[in-house]
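ok trying again, last paste got cut off:
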Amino acid sequence: MGFIYLYACLAVLLGLYVYTISAIKRVKRIYPPAGKFVSVEGVRLHYHDRGKGRAIVLLHGGVLQGSDFTQVMDIAVSKGYRVLAFDRPGYGYSDRPKKLRLTPERQAELLHLALKKIGVEKPILVGHSWSGLMVLSYAMQHADDLSGIVVLGGGMYKEGYPAEKGDPISKIVTAPIIGDIVMATLLATVGRMMARSMLKATFAPEQVPLDYEKEALSFWLRPSQFRANREDVLAFVPAADRLSAHYKSIQTPAVIVVGEKDPFPTQLHSYQLHAELPNSTLIVLKDAAHMIPHHHPKAVIDAVETLM
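nice, full thing came through this time. structure:
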């Protein structure tokens, strides 16, 4: 009898694994890569590159990928700018080698190398949510190669960050062996319910666009992308602790944009950052929540243009 239960469990796990593999293949078929690729230090990054003129570089948060900025890119191109939106390592179609420890600082360095290789000079760097910290790191490392920075609903300090006290799910997912088993068997099924709840909380009180939910459920529930997100969650607090003590040294012109109805502690972070950055402007968007690139794309370009 025990062998019967064992075989039944193995059959279920095998079925879930096959389902996960088929889901990954379906994503590639429905959402093929629409941009270009650049490789730096063995990491292949996928990015969208549109328009001509002064360069704006867009960095997404912790859920989807560079396509988060599709509406922003449309506006930017129509106004005569060159705009690039990257899939950060492990998201969309960008690689994330397991052996690399990709902190916000390291991701900023990879981006800098990629922009040099592509031939982008002194862009305005825009970071949403998690990437607010990455943009600040970039400004510390490569101030001479920037025209300015924009932070949208950014997380910049460890205080109030959802994983400030740790994150059990992230630790399980990133654990050797057991994390791979969980990701390969349970993510595409159990993860779907969790993802819908997460999306609702991230957009609240605004609505989750149906096309965004469909795309997010496809990409975010791939084991590689979910693991990348969980690694970023765990990397945020120690990185914020390291970097925040040096924010006052940033001389790069900055615009800090935050939604008045953002459900996360980004308003507190934004006000604090504005007080610390000597060359910063603070913009509070009334009736806006966290997902500014989706529901308020024009506000993103308006913020960029204050630096021009």
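cool. The longest strand covers residues 43-50. The CA atoms of residues 112 and 242 lie 20 Å apart.
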